[in-house]
User: Fold Mono/diheme cytochrome c family protein from Gallaecimonas pentaromativorans.
Amino acid sequence: MKWKKLLGSAVLMVVVVAGGLLAYGHFAPRGADPVPPVAGVPADLNGAMSHGEYLAKAADCVACHTARDGGKPYAGGRAFALPFGTIYATNLTPDKETGIGNWSDDAFVAAVREGVGSHGRLYPAMPYTSYVQMSRQDVLDIKKYLMTLEPVKQATPANTLSFPFNQRWGMAFWNAVFLDAKRYQPDAAKSEDWNRGAYLAGALGHCGECHTPRNIGFATKSHDYLAGAEIEGWKAYNTTSDDAYGLGDWTDAQLTGYLSRGHAPGRSSAAGPMAEVVEHSLQYLTQSDIHALVTYLRSVSPRTSEGSGEVNLDPATLKGATAVLPANAAMAADNRGKLLFEGDCAGCHQWDGAGRQTQYASLKGSHAVNDPEGNALVQVILNGTQLKVGGATQFMPGFGAIYSDKDIAAISNYVLSHFGDQQGKVTAEQVKKARQQP
Assistant:
């Protein structure tokens, strides 16, 4: 995999340098702004919050613009590690020195929709590649809300990108090559619900930024839209309508539960980056908007992208453990994983994976325990996970401080065998690399 990263960096370097020579300028977004009811806020918001606050939640602005480990909301500072350096999210509070307090409407719209900030062109870690589809009014409503926040004087740390990636002007050519600079245009052949769902998933929720694999230039592969990808050491799973690898076989109730509460009975519970999306964004969407998202996701063409997050969850293949007859891991030759699970995990998850203390502890049908590579499983065991939804906190502690790399590999492979009837491929070396994820 190292050669692929090196090749990708080399290609992107050529793009950046060529951009400075060939395309230093400003791209022109195309198409009229979408209008309500596709854009804007749904009728059933009923004054629960301001239009701008609702749209900011739908766009999940706070998740990226808040530093982890106690950062003040929207004050920036969250680090994003890239193959060629680290960039930091900016301060969106109305502080006049370090935030957006002195920004004009036009400047804010240009940053959100066109990727042009106060210091030059933005990097696509800021999903302007999706926000470009938004209406100007939606962007300005978000700005209006942000200006009501308490100003926080907090300078954004300097990016640490290597040359030539630290030359922002080069992004002009990247945009020219990879950016589809079009406003969202409703499809007259589709229903109002479908169009609203497409706008929510694309322009606002930017689902494809995480769930779509990227090409060698680090742009999303449009032909593999929502086919699954790896992000921050986790898997953003396939969310196309594919029956075996995607959401095609999920019921409407399961999809609704996962989007609005982070749990789909008999399927999965949200963890890691997806838990953040549910916590900060999706749980606040109205019932009509959740329904619109379900309608849209049902229609996304089935896709699979080998090596990018697909896990076969065809019910016909899900054997796993039952309350009466545990899966084959109970008789595994290596008992280390079984002993660890027995001592630290069975109390919450139960031997049959039912998770009787809370539905979020259920492991049945989970992506994590049916993925032989065990990426998400390793992350959860190492770091734990937390989800605040509906006024309650769902929490699993991390065991990275007390388990060795070999122990985490052992318990991961046991869980994969016991609950997914999968031959786990987790190694101590894989766990060691996961510990080093920023």
User: Anything to note?
Assistant: The longest strand covers residues 385-389.
